[in-house]
Design brief:
By secondary structure, the chain is mainly alpha-helical. Helix content is 87%, strand content 0%. It has helices at residues 4-35, 39-59. It starts with a helix and ends with a helix.
Length: 61
């Protein structure tokens, strides 16, 4: 299916990608805390709304 060289390249690419993404996330962490304050409550609102829709759908059967 894949040659040994392709598998080694894929493994090294994946490791490098994860390391770079981790470094960039740590670098931007302060900026995200400043700009995206309160996003957690928006997520809670969406989840609550979805649960409400499910309760209405299955509750009215």
């Amino acid at each position: 299916m894949f040659s040994t060289g392709q598998l080694i390249f894929a493994l090294l690419f994946f490791i490098a990608f994860v390391i770079i993404i981790s470094i960039m996330y740590r670098k931007d962490k302060k900026l995200h805390k400043k700009n995206y304050r309160g996003v957690f409550w928006v997520l809670i609102g969406f989840i609550g709304f979805f649960v409400l829709l499910l309760l209405i759908k299955y509750g009215l059967k």
